[in-house]
Write a structure and sequence with these properties.
Helix content is 27%, strand content 30%. The protein is an alpha+beta fold. It has a single domain, classed as Alpha-Beta Plaits (2-Layer Sandwich). The two termini are 17 Å apart.
Length: 97
């Protein structure tokens, strides 16, 4: 896979719709624990951190349903440019198990 998930944490409200949509698409039930995407809240920094499971197949359902358009898939090259420009609040989602 030559794509990564880019997250604009300034837009992410922590609604966790992405988790519900993913769990329904992949597990056929609304259960955030079974989702391949997770929204983790960092209270100290007042920011939401989005992470992907290694099982994510980049179907794009989370992006499609994100109400604030905080998520986008980008090529590795695009992600590298974004990271180099290092706009505050924009990050590449880490992969989790």
């Amino acid at each position: 896979m030559d794509e990564v998930l880019i997250v604009d944490s300034g837009k992410c409200t922590g609604c966790r719709v992405c988790e519900l949509v993913c769990s329904m698409a992949k597990q056929k039930e609304y259960n955030p624990r079974k989702s391949f995407i997770r929204v983790l809240r960092n209270r100290e920094m007042d920011v939401n951190v989005v992470a992907l499971s290694i099982r994510c197949d980049y179907c794009g359902k989370c992006i499609e349903w994100c109400p604030t358009k905080a998520l986008i898939f980008a090529s590795s090259e695009e992600a590298a440019i974004t990271r180099k420009e290092n706009k505050l609040g924009i990050s590449i989602a880490p992969i989790i198990e």
